[in-house]
Amino acid sequence: MNDYKKTKAELVKELEAVRRELAKIKSEPDGQKSDKEWESQAFRQPRWELDAAIEFIADFDIIKAKGINISEGGICFELDEDLPFEMQFKRKGCLHRQRACLIWVKRLSEGGYRFGLKFVPPEDDPNSKL
Q: If DSSP codes are grouped into helix, strand and coil, which group holds residue 11?
């Protein structure tokens, strides 16, 4: 149905649904992206299921951060550099070793965390291709 044929109540209901969806999107890690990053989503690489145990080691020494705020329960800070990790996992029977940098972290409602890491371009490592 065209918008000009809808009643005010129908338009308000539709607007509320769109606002709920937008709020949900903005609360996810991708919701923090700039317009330019949103546009690049059209070029997002394909994802595949990965049922593998992943071993990873934080690969950093002392890192300087900028304090944002603090409370009795915790602290918020920002980093000016990537947090690099080394990892290894098996995929299709082959052991893969990768370097990656932390992109986002999400706390899961059932406990635990989900991480998004971006692979760092390999330095002539034949095991780095998926």
A: helix
Cβ pair 75, 67 in contact under 8 A: yes
Comparing C-alpha atoms, which of 84, 70, 80, 66 is closest to residue 121? Answer: 84
Residues 49 and 38 in one domain: no
Domain span including residue 14: 1-44
Q: Judge whether 84 and 120 are in contact, CB under 8 Å.
A: yes
Report whether pLDDT(21) > 60.
yes
Q: What is the CA radius of gyration of the chain?
A: 21
Distance, C-alpha 102 to centroid of its chain: 8
pTM above 0.85, yes or no: no
How many domains is the chain partitioned into structurally?
Answer: 2
User: How does 9-46 read in b/e, with b if 16+ C-beta sit within 10 Å?
Assistant: eeeeeeeeeeeeeeeeeeeeeeeeeeeeeeeeeeeeee
